[in-house]
């Protein structure tokens, strides 16, 4: 008989970044990171394990994935099977719920949903902490998407000690939102995995990153406890820029940012000059994400649409952690 499980996981955006691995195979990071889970972008995944299957298959957004993508999922399923003590092959059906063509699909929501769906299908009985560890093996940032709101990934030092936990902010996150500025990228894509590895191994500025990131974590934690938006904003913006600065010192140097990324950053600075607190961060691509207080959301959107088209601006509330879906819930 087939064993199935379905789960939904939301993407997360790091306020204090994960950038560089201490262990590439186990995905142990060089530093702790802190994120916010968002409600707008998510992945729903059904995992079906069946003795009748002779190989793993992977369907993404209704279409069978190519050999390379299927191989990646299959390698991940090997970890799951080892952990669950089974040899059953699986069919994985995943759907990404992201605004069309925005290029915002994330490996964070993908592997968090896959780990949770497998846990359900195979009755593995993993705690959220163990699920976080399992999601981490697929993609580091996925270990934070197990939880809603603010989450911190404790870097740890081995497979057992590297996982995320929620940061209790006493519902402060309900007052916040994140505005995405979706920027088209004509330059060659450097995957986050490739970019962080090159930077960690070759960048003259990487030590500078390591020298500051622990203090950034402490500062962000304190700001969250105090619900001090300005304090949190200042440290997240500085941390994001520092991450991007390390890439300029890599050999060869590279950047994820394009002219329109800088345009968005300038507009955020103009918001602040006008007395509206708003702070930006960027990941392994040119899109700019702006953390705002909900009461200022419209004013910041108005400022951004003075240059960007309305369809380039997407606002998201803060999201919840993984959800197990009923069999009836359509994918
Ligand atoms: C810039 O989690 O995608 O978004 O662990 O190699 O799969 P792998 O990398 P990934 O890297 C995310 C990098 C980042 C910062 C962050 O999310 O913390």
UniProtKB/TrEMBL annotation:
Residues annotated as domain Mvd1 C-terminal: 179-314
Keywords: ATP-binding, Lipid biosynthesis, Lipid metabolism, Lyase, Nucleotide-binding
InterPro entries assigned: GHMP_kinase_C_sf, Mev_decarb, Mev_diP_decarb, MVD-like_N, Mvd1_C, Ribosomal_Su5_D2-typ_SF, Ribsml_uS5_D2-typ_fold_subgr
GO molecular function, one term: diphosphomevalonate decarboxylase activity
EC number: 4.1.1.33
Domain Diphosphomevalonate decarboxylase-like N-terminal: 9-163
Cellular component annotations (GO), alphabetically ordered: cytosol
Domain of life: Bacteria
One of the protein's GO biological processes: isopentenyl diphosphate biosynthetic process, mevalonate pathway
Keyword flag Zinc: no
Lyase recorded as keyword: yes
Similarity remark: Belongs to the diphosphomevalonate decarboxylase family.
Protein name: diphosphomevalonate decarboxylase
């Amino acid at each position: 008989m087939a064993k199935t499980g379905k789960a939904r996981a939301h993407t997360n955006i790091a306020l204090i970044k994960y950038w560089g691995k201490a262990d590439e195979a186990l995905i142990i990071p060089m530093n702790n990171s802190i994120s916010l889970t968002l409600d707008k972008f998510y992945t729903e995944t059904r995992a079906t394990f069946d003795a009748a299957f002779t190989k793993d298959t992977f369907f993404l957004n209704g279409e069978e994935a190519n050999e390379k993508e299927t191989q990646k999922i299959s390698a991940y399923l090997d970890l799951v099977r080892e952990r669950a003590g089974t040899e059953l092959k699986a069919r994985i059906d995943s759907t990404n719920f992201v605004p069309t063509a925005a290029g915002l699909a994330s490996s964070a929501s993908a592997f968090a949903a896959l780990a949770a769906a497998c846990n359900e299908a195979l009755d593995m009985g993993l705690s959220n902490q163990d699920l976080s560890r399992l999601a981490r093996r697929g993609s580091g940032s996925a270990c934070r998407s197990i939880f809603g709101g603010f989450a911190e990934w404790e870097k740890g030092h081995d497979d057992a000690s590297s996982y995320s936990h929620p940061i209790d902010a006493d519902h402060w996150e309900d007052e916040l939102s994140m505005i995405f500025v979706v920027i088209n990228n004509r330059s060659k894509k450097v995957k986050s995995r490739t970019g962080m590895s090159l930077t960690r191994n070759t960048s003259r500025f990487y030590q500078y990153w390591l020298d500051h990131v622990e203090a950034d974590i402490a500062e962000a934690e304190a700001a969250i406890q105090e619900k001090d938006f300005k304090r949190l904003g200042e440290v997240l913006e500085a941390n994001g820029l520092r991450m991007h600065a390390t890439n300029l010192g890599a050999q060869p140097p590279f950047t994820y940012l394009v002219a329109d990324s800088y345009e968005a950053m300038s507009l955020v600075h103009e918001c602040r000059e006008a007395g509206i607190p708003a702070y930006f961060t960027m990941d392994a691509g040119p899109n700019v994400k702006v953390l705002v207080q909900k009461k200022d959301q419209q004013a910041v959107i108005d400022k951004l649409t003075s240059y960007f088209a309305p369809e380039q601006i997407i606002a998201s509330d803060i999201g919840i952690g993984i959800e197990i879906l009923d069999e009836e819930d359509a994918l």
